Amino acid sequence: MTPHPDPQAGAAVKAADRAHVFHSWSAQGLIDPLAVAGAEGSYFWDYDGNRYLDFTSGLVFTNIGYQHPKVVAAIQEQAGKLATFAPAFAVEARSEAARLIAERTPGDLDKIFFTNGGAEAVENAVRMARLHTGRPKVLSAYRSYHGGTATAINITGDPRRWANDNGTAGVVRFWAPFLYRSRFYSETTEQESARALQHLEDTITFEGPQTIAAIILETIPGTAGIMTPPPGYLAGVREICDRYGIVFVLDEVMAGFGRTGKWFAAEHFGVTPDLLTFAKGVNSGYVPLGGVAISAEIAATFDKRPYPGGLTYSGHPLACAAAVATIQVMEDEKVVENAAHIGETVLGPGLRELAERHPSVGEVRGTGVFWALDLVKDRETREPLVPYNAAGEANAPMAAFAAACKKNGLWPFVNMNRTHAVPPCNVTAAEAKEGLAALDAALSVADEHVVS
Predict the structure, then answer these.
(1) Confidence label for 345 from pLDDT (cuts 50, 70 and 90)
(2) Which residues are CB-neighbours of 452 under 8 A, at least 6 positions away?
(3) d(Cα 172, Cα 119) in Å, to the nearest integer?
């Protein structure tokens, strides 16, 4: 679709937004949201006719791009047949979505509890773990994001937690492996994995294994920096959980449904958790949907004992119909395979080539269509381009980088000192190369802030 400029309509949309919409994670008087006129595939555009290649996939959820006609048609068909129904009933779209998801989850994660999104999925996974074990505590990593609701934000490890952390949620944090910024003075991936596992076990020992219900990890952390765990780490966590009777929860809200070049990132590591949370890519975000995939053992806990949790819109027919259509599209159009291919042949090599030419790039990390560039002032010291949780003038270098991306028609995912390359899983090679070219130009702006 070709965007047709209509600045007057855009001004009206912006005025209504500024008058009435309260935006998340924002100081309301300091933001200037772009008024979006439309979107299709890997692109969206504003009312002035500016078109952007979306290297954010919304918030890393449009895994099949915007406005896929088959999914739009499925939502329309479901709306005409049964637009909504209470969650206590068996509904075709809900049953079929659960079946298709269960077919793709690892191991025996064959029962699906539907939520409205990822944060609620985490809330319920933690509740299930606590009820199943009868224990109060949950261990989570410092470099993590698990959602904005009460329990999920307390489990989260990034600064968005601070203003919401009341210290009563029974959460204990630990350092997960990250060799580039190792907390364990490691020099190899083997050292990082072994030392991170020892640190985790020490934490468990001092907290009291009998008090710990669950360990939750993003299989590959997303917003925190796309840090692929080293070989053996997740298998080691699985072994620790088994030894102490701790529920192992993998958060695949961002990494799941093709993003890493597999249906679920856990497949890369040969690990099956006890609970797996999902959302976002399950239906490309077309209608809000998330959920928890549950092991047979934990599901059996609630065979005769009611599960004390539920949502009015759990398994909403429109959302589930969108999920069924999305999964079918991903199968028919080999979207997961495309994500793996683009990562191996275009994004991975292209981003590494940019790193060779731009001194502001400290490290390239990722797989599939799930990549991050760690931007630095100094490659030798690995000092980040901006300080941790920088704002205002302290964040000026990253703000300038982001502005340069947009000037070149690329909408970037920027968080702290990183930019993430996370286009739709069905992005074409030509679109990925277009994004790399825009990043190339914008990184020249970041290079201006490097210590010479």
Answers:
(1) very high
(2) none
(3) 18
Which long-range contacts (C-beta less than 8 Å, at least 24 apart) are formed by 29-37? 35/10, 35/11, 37/3, 37/6, 37/9, 37/10
Average of pLDDT values for 272-292?
Answer: 98
pLDDT at 234: 98
| Encoded amino acid at 391, one letter | A
* Distance from C-alpha of 68 to C-alpha of 41, rounded to nearest angstrom: 7
Contact 101, 276 (CB under 8 A): no
Q: What is the pLDDT of residues 88-137, one digit of tens each?
A: 999 999 999 999 999 999 999 999 999 999 999 999 999 999 999 999 99
Whether 4 shows a pLDDT value over 70: the answer reads: yes
How far apart CA 218 and CA 222 sit, in angstroms, is: 7
Q: How far apart are CA 426 and CA 66, in angstroms?
A: 11
Instruction: Determine contact, residues 141/176, Cβ cutoff 8 Å.
Output: yes
Contact 445, 402 (CB under 8 A): no
DSSP annotation of 41 reads B
In percent, the amount of the chain with pLDDT more than 70 equals 98
Arithmetic mean of pLDDT over the chain: 95
Answer positive or negative: Cα dihedral of 58, 274, 248, 125: positive
Q: What are the distances in angstroms from CA 335 to CA 163, 281, 331, 417, 425?
A: 39, 12, 7, 30, 6
Strand partners, 66: 41
Residues 63 and 335: beta-carbon distance below 8 Å: yes
Q: How many CB atoms lie within 10 A of CB 439?
A: 25
CB–CB of 235/258 below 8 Å? no
DSSP 19-80: HH---TTS-GGG-----EEEEEBTEEEETTS-EEEESSHHHHT-TT-B--HHHHHHHHHHHH
* In contact, 157 and 142? CB cutoff 8 Å: yes
What is the pLDDT confidence band of residue 411, given thresholds at 50, 70 and 90? Answer: very high
- The average pLDDT across 13-38 equals 95
Residue 359 burial class via C-beta count within 10 angstroms: exposed 0-12, middle 13-18, buried 19 and up: middle
User: Residue 231 — left, alpha, or beta (φ > 0 → left; ψ -120 to 50 → alpha)?
Assistant: beta
Q: What is the largest CA-CA distance in the chain?
A: 67
In angstroms, the CA 165 to CA 151 distance is 9
Structure tokens at 9: 């309509």
Can you tell me the distance from the alpha carbon of 12 to that of 17, in angstroms, rounded to the nearest whole number? 9
